[in-house]
Give the backbone structure.
Amino acid sequence: MSEFVIGIPIGMAIGIAIGINLGIIIGKKQKPWYELTEEEKRKRKVLIGTGVIILVIGFLTGLWQYLTF
């Protein structure tokens, strides 16, 4: 097997582990949705939208790299 094929699952596992850890750390400090002010709700929506866009770009980049090599 090539290093590229071996590197994909390792990279995905590391990314998932880091994401879960960050989610747990950040999630402990969050207030419930009903306690947020309108400004805080707007900021959280923007952050979630930005995260989804970055996730899609990363997925498409990984797919592109996988298909071109």
Remarks:
- The mean pLDDT is 86.
- The two ends are 14 Å apart (CA to CA).
- DSSP finds two helices and no strands in the chain.
